[in-house]
User: Fold these one by one.
Assistant:
Number 1:
Amino acid sequence: MISALDPLREFSFLSVAVRLAAAAFAGGIIGYGRAVKKRPAGIRTYILTCVGAALTVLIAAYEYEMLSGQWAPIVAEVGMKFDGSRYAAQAISGMGFLASGSILAASHQRVSGLTTATGLFATVCMGIAAGAGFYELVVIGAILIQVTLEGLYPLEGGFKRRIRNITLFVEYEHPEDFDEICRTVTGRGASLHDIEIEQHVREGNKFPGAVIHIQMSQEMSSHSGMLSAIAQMPCVVSIYEVVG
């Protein structure tokens, strides 16, 4: 531990202010990156989440100070027991409800918000560390969370583009056009693993559509190549890759 920070680990007005400021700053750093990408949870959400978690620990610390100080005679009389860890535990449990609200089941088997939910959970843990005066953990945690959410995003995208499995949603003009689409896929050396027809006939502005799970060949494993080959077909109305 850094000995120079020992005065700020004591329970005082200055340490409380510094801990809350550290929580707000760390949460703001994480939230800024998410807000730039227009994710469901932005700067204010992450700051409030982190500060709220810090507050639970500070409340526990305050209650412990009072029970062992001014309230000591009452505690001795009634035999009260205190477990400060319950506050942090309840903060993490409550985070589950907030995080689950950011996870959305979108159309065509897509699920969005998982990264936001896990980011909020990690931010709560970071806030608990700030409230406990574990400043080293706050700094390291903020850096690791930020690098994971922002720095690894291009790496993850590149990895997904290199894998041979791909899931596509295709809309086409007529139900019989789907067989031609399947022939185009297999003509590129790919195999169809699963097909789920979402709409059989045209209804107003909605065309027949299907979700196609494909495993491409090693020789022709380009996602953009497969998308381009199908998109160029005259019968195809729209196509995009379904990313989970």
Number 2:
Amino acid sequence: MAKKYWLLMSIVLLTTTQLFAQQIDSTSVLMSEISKSYKGDIKNGLAHGKGTAKGEDTYSGEFKNGLPDGKGKYTYKNGNTFSGYFSKGLKNGKGVFNFSLAGNAMTQKGYWVNGDYVGITDPAELYIVSNISGIESYSIKKVDDNSEGITFSVIKGGMKYVPSSFKIVPTSGQMMPQGKSLSITNYNLPVNCEVSFTVNKSGNIVQCYFTFEILKPGKYEVELINP
């Protein structure tokens, strides 16, 4: 009798455990497209950590509060894939989207914000430096969010000075002298600036170049430093 009782209890316990596991499996992911099954880390009944969720689509990677969040790979039911970063279930950050268009394999690289593709440039970046030559170091600082302008200074021995053949060519805007600096105002973003000048290093004339692009609104200070 005791053996039958324990056998019956074992069957009930096993069935209850399986039903509970299936319940967790079907409710731990909050996106219907991938909520059929889930294997991975769970916190407070939701997918949280690393795991794989499957449904009509498949996602493998990092989760937070039941949604893809962090780095992962999403495979759509049509075979298209996105490998990159997610936030609250949406593509968000750097990634690569592989898809088919009219029977041709296509690849889209760049950045996404809240599920939308925004281009090949990181939307969080304030500027991009594309060329530097003859210059020891540089500094680009955003000093004000409520006004616009770019001030250029060349530093030598800790002091500002105007070097020979100091020239700045912006893609838009107006140049203005400002003491031992030059400023650009009334430009359109993004604005690309090509800076060139010459310096004397140990009796040798060195041509210096610096090219960069400002991407976001604000007031910036640019310092080009030579020892």
Number 3:
Amino acid sequence: MAHIVTQPCVGCRYTDCVVVCPVECFYEGADMLYIHPDECIDCEACVAECPVEAIFHEDNVPADWKSFIELNAEMALKSKVITEKKKPLADS
């Protein structure tokens, strides 16, 4: 199982979570971050670092955001890995 980035990340894209990830499983999309489910080791380090509480364990993703499970898997393959903190999006 993996952790999933969900709706609260859309449009903010804080990167506090990426610097604590020991396996570099975060990927940067145009308007949010994604976690590669095959790379995540479920260490939970990222969960506490997310200022908008957008990261959930796959088993605990709220029902309204279940589509983000597939979205993370799909978009992580199409996005560039991110390992350093960056400035959040302008409207954050």
Number 4:
Amino acid sequence: MFEIIEYPNKLLRKKSGNIKQISSKEVQQFIPELIETMIKKDGLGLAAPQVGKNINIIAVRMDSGSHVFINPAILWKNWFKKNVIEEGCLSFPGIFGLIKRPRTIWIKYYQPDGKLKIVKLSGLSSVIFQHEIDHLRGILFIDKIFKYIKGEDIIKELKQNAGKE
């Protein structure tokens, strides 16, 4: 199991690179450990940067179980219909806030066996994917919160310590 990196660690702000050799031993060994960490930490999703690897891979819990998505990318977002949902993040313990995200998205990704998939997501799955794909781009959910539910005092202190506002 991996340790979760917490803000203000600068690794969380780095953009991740695409995985070129999906079948490599390193990637294939990384996959089950990422899933195990997400499950044991009770997360709905987990991105590789949150465990110290700046590679484009995320784990997500869905109705059908836990899965990994390699080199995921959002192809299309419905900018006209949005959900407002409370989000939290394993890299920000105790912090929760409201975020507005497109309700429906289309994504492409590679499965661990190297097959390319394109799928439409909506509802909670859409939110989780957008959150985790943001991590791969160095974007954090605190960048998108418009109203804090819990932990606003914690994040203000963390930002000060990080040299931000």
